[in-house]
């Protein structure tokens, strides 16, 4: 019965784990065994006394144990956290990112997936737990020529660009190293700037990567003459980008009441926060069905979304949910021929959206909605949702829909 640790297989120390069903000595180790759907509030008193929590995984496709681990770490649990049961090597990296210290697997699985398979799936930089503790710092980026004008500020991280991709003359995405202590909820935004002035210009950018990712991804418009994007569009791998330390936003699962279907309505770069949410297993824990709509002017402008969705099906964390049809994606174009043509507001109004999905129309009793796009799109969507009986929610007062402007400058 091996234990998979970040340094390799080890025998399970006494007391033996759940899979062995042993009656081993538990005097020195206060163990708390939790089912994947355990309620933290119900066991809060026991958390302080436990130095080992074992979370049971009954099926490879059940991601609830990962969310539970994250919630325990976020609630301040500092003891040993072990995943027990149906975890596969592809999920090991994510398990560590969620805060697990090790994984207890069966002999049978260890024979099918040897040690090398598991060690190939480790976090590049650090585990989620290290991030929470602020251990194993990310190497500081090399100083840039602009450093003589820019003075480091206490509330700003200096991060390195790891990837840049241009989609059209007006759209690009980039990835940054993630600071060890930078935490956010999927769907939130952060403030981004460049070290090109003593007082850099900062603009809000939705985090397009999920909260568990080792890097940070952003999707941006290029505004001719825009104070930030006229420079930001020229960054390349190795450059330094500034990131303010606090992330915030309303497009978070916490701002919505529980429901069955989650509609994510986006136009243009408004897809960015949803790129994060559709890759977060918590989204599928909370909703049976996730429907992402993206409306762009042309197919070239929808390419970031198309790439994202193609990759989601093969994602080791949410790929099973996506392949099982729990994520539906609808693309409509407004200035090019396309099977589904028109603004999302029109497609909802004339029922074309629901006909193309083969689903019933919006219903505030079962559906929740998030909206991200231009100011005009938000105004129109807000009116449409309110007419249909939806009410706007917030972090403090969750309700049936939330909106956020897709930030441009
Ligand atoms: P349209 O081409 O008809 O203007 P933008 O880049 O201007 O934010 O637009 C992105 C997409 O959002 C475009 O397809 C655009 O359609 C659409 N759009 C613009 N305004 C609205 C609105 N008020 N309601 C719904 N969709 C909109």
Describe the structure.
- By secondary structure, the protein is α/β, with parallel strands linked by helices.
- The protein is 25% helix and 25% strand.
- It has helices at residues 40-49, 64-74, 92-98, 107-112, 115-119, 128-133, 229-232, 272-277, 281-286, 303-312, 319-323, 344-349, 352-357, 375-387, and strands at 2-5, 8-11, 31-34, 52-57, 80-85, 102-104, 156-168, 171-177, 189-193, 203-206, 215-221, 240-244, 261-267, 289-296, 327-333, 367-373, 401-405.
- The protein has a six-stranded mixed beta sheet with strand order 2-1-6-5-4-3. The chain has a six-stranded antiparallel beta sheet with strand order 10-9-12-7-8-11, with no helix packed on it. Strands 15-14-13-16-17 form a five-stranded parallel beta sheet.
- Helix 14 (375-387) links the parallel strand 16 (367-373) and strand 17 (401-405).
- Adenosine-2'-5'-diphosphate is lined by residues 267-268, 295-297, 334-335, 343-345, 373-374, 376-377, 380.
Furnish the topology, listing elements before pairings.
Elements: E1 2-5, E2 8-11, E3 31-34, H1 40-49, E4 52-57, H2 64-74, E5 80-85, H3 92-98, E6 102-104, H4 107-112, H5 115-119, H6 128-133, E7 156-168, E8 171-177, E9 189-193, E10 203-206, E11 215-221, H7 229-232, E12 240-244, E13 261-267, H8 272-277, H9 281-286, E14 289-296, H10 303-312, H11 319-323, E15 327-333, H12 344-349, H13 352-357, E16 367-373, H14 375-387, E17 401-405
Parallel strand pairs: 3-4, 4-5, 5-6, 13-14, 13-16, 14-15, 16-17
Antiparallel strand pairs: 1-2, 1-6, 7-8, 7-12, 8-11, 9-10, 9-12
The chain binds adenosine-2'-5'-diphosphate (A2P).
Residues 267-268, 295-297, 334-335, 343-345, 373-374, 376-377, 380 line the site of adenosine-2'-5'-diphosphate (A2P).
């Amino acid at each position: 019965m091996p234990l998979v640790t970040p340094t390799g297989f080890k025998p399970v120390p006494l007391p033996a784990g759940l899979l062995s069903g042993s009656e081993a000595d538990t005097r020195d180790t206060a163990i708390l065994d939790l089912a994947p759907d355990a309620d933290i509030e119900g066991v809060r008193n026991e958390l302080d006394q436990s130095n080992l929590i074992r979370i049971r995984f009954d099926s490879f496709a059940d991601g609830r144990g990962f969310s539970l681990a994250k919630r325990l770490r976020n609630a301040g649990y500092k003891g040993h956290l072990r995943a027990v049961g149906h975890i596969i090597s592809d999920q090991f990296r994510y398990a560590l990112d969620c805060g697990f210290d090790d994984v207890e697997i069966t002999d049978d699985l260890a024979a099918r997936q040897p040690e090398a398979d598991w060690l190939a799936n480790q976090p590049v930089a650090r585990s989620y737990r290290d991030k929470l503790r602020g251990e194993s710092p990310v190497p500081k980026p090399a100083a840039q020529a602009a450093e003589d004008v820019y003075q480091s500020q206490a509330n700003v991280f200096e991060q390195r660009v790891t990837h840049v991709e241009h989609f059209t003359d007006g759209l690009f995405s980039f990835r940054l190293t993630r600071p060890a202590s930078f935490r956010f909820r999927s769907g939130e935004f952060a403030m981004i700037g460049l070290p090109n002035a003593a007082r850099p210009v900062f603009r809000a950018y939705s985090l397009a990567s999920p909260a568990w990712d080792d890097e940070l991804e952003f999707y941006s418009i290029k505004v001719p003459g825009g104070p930030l994007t006229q420079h930001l569009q020229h960054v390349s791998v190795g450059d330094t980008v500034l990131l303010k330390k606090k992330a915030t936003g309303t497009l978070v699962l916490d701002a919505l009441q529980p429901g069955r279907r989650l509609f994510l309505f986006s136009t243009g770069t408004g897809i960015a926060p949803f790129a994060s949410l559709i890759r977060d297993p918590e989204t599928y824990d909370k909703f049976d069905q996730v429907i992402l709509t993206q409306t762009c002017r042309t197919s070239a402008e929808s390419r970031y979304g198309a790439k994202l969705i193609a990759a989601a099906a093969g994602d080791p964390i949410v790929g099973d949910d996506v392949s099982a049809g729990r994520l539906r994606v609808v693309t409509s174009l407004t200035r090019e021929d396309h099977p589904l043509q028109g603004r999302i507001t029109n497609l909802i109004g004339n029922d074309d959206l629901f006909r193309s999905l083969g689903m019933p129309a919006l219903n505030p009793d079962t559906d929740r909605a998030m909206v991200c796009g231009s100011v005009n799109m938000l105004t129109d969507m807000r009116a449409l949702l309110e007419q249909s009986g939806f009410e706007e929610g917030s972090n403090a007062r969750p309700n049936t829909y939330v909106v956020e402007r897709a930030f441009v400058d």
